[in-house]
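Lecture notes, structural biology module. Today: joint structure prediction for complexes of two components.
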Amino acid sequence: MAEKRLRPRAIPAILRPRNDPTDATRLAQSTVTTSGVMSTEDVVCWLERRRLAGKSCVLRIPLAELVGWRFDESTGNLEHSSGRFFSVEGYRVSVEGEVSEQWLQPILNQPEIAVLGLLVQEFNGILHVLMQAKMEPGNCNLIQLSPTVQATRSNYLKVHGGAAVRYLEYFTSQDRGRVIVDILQSEQGTWFDRKVNRNIIVEAKGDVPVHEDFCWLTFGQLGQLLQHDNIVNMDARTVLSCMPMSETGSAALHSDVELLAWFTGVRCRYAVRAERIPLSAVPHWTRDEVAIRHIEGRHFAVVAVSVNAESRETASWTQPLLEPCGEGIACFLTREFDGVPHYLVHASIEGGFVNAIELAPTVQCTSSDYKDPAARDRIPFLDAVLSANPKCIQYQAVQSEEGGRFLNAQTRYMVIGVTGREAPTVPPPDYFWVTRDQLTSLVKHSSYINIQARTLLACLNAMANSGV
Amino acid sequence: MAEKRLRPRAIPAILRPRNDPTDATRLAQSTVTTSGVMSTEDVVCWLERRRLAGKSCVLRIPLAELVGWRFDESTGNLEHSSGRFFSVEGYRVSVEGEVSEQWLQPILNQPEIAVLGLLVQEFNGILHVLMQAKMEPGNCNLIQLSPTVQATRSNYLKVHGGAAVRYLEYFTSQDRGRVIVDILQSEQGTWFDRKVNRNIIVEAKGDVPVHEDFCWLTFGQLGQLLQHDNIVNMDARTVLSCMPMSETGSAALHSDVELLAWFTGVRCRYAVRAERIPLSAVPHWTRDEVAIRHIEGRHFAVVAVSVNAESRETASWTQPLLEPCGEGIACFLTREFDGVPHYLVHASIEGGFVNAIELAPTVQCTSSDYKDPAARDRIPFLDAVLSANPKCIQYQAVQSEEGGRFLNAQTRYMVIGVTGREAPTVPPPDYFWVTRDQLTSLVKHSSYINIQARTLLACLNAMANSGV
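The predicted structure, tokenised, for the full assembly:
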């Protein structure tokens, strides 16, 4: 008894390390594991079977046949009758800097923050992620792998009168899981007004029932599937890019202080203002029976589709989709300095970003841009991309942008190894060489890395861990 | 010769560590040094002498006597005839969340990003910072210590026809110095529409001529002066808060992942929209001969002053100033957990923030708020501040907000030690316990820490290093 009393009273150790590497280590283990509950080939077949089982059908329809949507008489905006969902409005962007510029365009306005949630759980000591075979009307192949939950507030409040969103409770209640990452990230700043979504990874507690549209994969399998065209959807890619990674600890061409100071400098060089205006006040864009489009057929069109699907929350509906004119390119040029790979980021102005400027791939453009003969001179580094030696292409796949808003929006994602001849050590002012570690530390915060660069980061992370 | 050839060709070591602790170490050394070129007491006397030498005089004048300013006939906005400088406009803020709210108010619109620059240089192995005795018409004592450079674009483009801004070249050219930090930070979100300024610290190369309005101080001396009322101005305090600090490496109640996830959660709980509207469309505010004011005398007024000064870029001018109704409070409650001090931050909605929500002190309110008898119930933790035992007050001083825009805007800054009785370990949802290290790592990025919390962080940093 006396002995017991002499023992100092245990101080409750309620503190924890600020940065526990355990999750990063476990995720890295999963990333090098390519055998899962189902083989990766079988995942592709399973997706195909879900595609057939879904019996989905998407048809283009005239704008007038949209149900529950209307053009506002005074503004010309295309809106949902519930006032929720999203709307197509006009947008005025002005940039003041070395050169002053202003343009008007249609824009998607969707003020709601969606949940993009990956549910993970350990099986046989390896983290697996629950992926969904999800039909989205804008995908060329309709069904792709999406996060466990991909739902706007309208979705889960059932504004469209649909079914409950499966597994949502893991992301809305703290009792069902443990948060590994939860961060707001931007979406396409040229198509959306200030759109951000919540990128979440949660480790589930307890048994998770698996619905037939879902399957458990290792992160290594997702990495393999990212090498294929149009399998891993945009929402899955952005959450993957936010996955905590063990940093390599490598040095860099520029310190983090220099990187942030350069970025501040760019943000101060341009004063960007963007505001929504009535769609009818946007010149050079017209509306005919089937589309809102640019009079020269450039940029994109807004069209309407009718959807019949058995596997979605609601079985059939109509909706507008934004259809870009041709395939996009998003490419990182990469060079090794002292043996450490660096990627050339571009501080890019997109009118719809909350902070006007984010870090984008070295080259990011649409086909109408790069097919213009003058573009090779106008867009820095485009020539290096278009004339790259195939042997120098470290990554290449065509991926879809969000199929719930965009129709056939496909982007050729590339990582191309170059030399100082194509990309100098001291690049133009709005470009900067960064390491993967530096991208990883910036993606922990909002408003740094744009969605195209995040897709490439997800691919880089997958390749680095798998040793591809 | 043969030997020489065998030696491997040296690979140019162009990489550098991402995080070099040298600057933080040197700044910490300066922070513990309280003897400088001039004793700290002499700095106070020198400021007094500059005050007398400046022969400045600020007089309240009727709004109609503003020169170069006019009320726009259609909007009622108060604008400068150059279209630059700043304007007083109307503002509509709507918040949707658990409770929906909307309010209208006047707001300052100043789209320009100002440079707030501290120039540092080593003397006898200790970093010193070049501070300016700067007259600002809104300061109760007119002259306070400001950063080396504190200049809007209008200032240095000489829109008001003034003299050149001294030392600006160190912050605009890379040849004159080396950047230690350069980051955009927000200013008062209740008074400004989306205002951010550039917080820069540069180490000067070569001899720096010292003008009579300037003097070199150690960071330790600045820390001593922060213990006094109204000596270190707001712009100096915000740059000081961004100073790179050596982290203590202490554990925390919550990991960084939990902190960021909590912040994301708060940002998702509230949908905030803010837009400028015509000032004449703001109800409950009136304009008489001398002020734009709230009909119940609450919040603030916009008044006009005429300034005669010999020490500023222009010798005399008139301008509007925002005058708050009474003194503000900005207070961190602090508790030790397992011996590590934690500070209770409040994720606060201010309509003018670019990202709507930033981390603020535990209590931040104006006197018209806290003098309301119902306020003690309405404002969480206000009672703990107002009834604090004087022995528990770790820091207290009255400091001025930016005297170039605000008249007699004084805030009582406090840090108060409390127990679990006043501030529980699990606080209300919009509050969170963080360590100083965590504040230090967040202030490296924009849009996390509001300007009042940054003043307190500057004080905490000064106290921690000096062992006060």
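Point to remember: Confidence is low (pLDDT under 50) at residues 1-11 of chain A.
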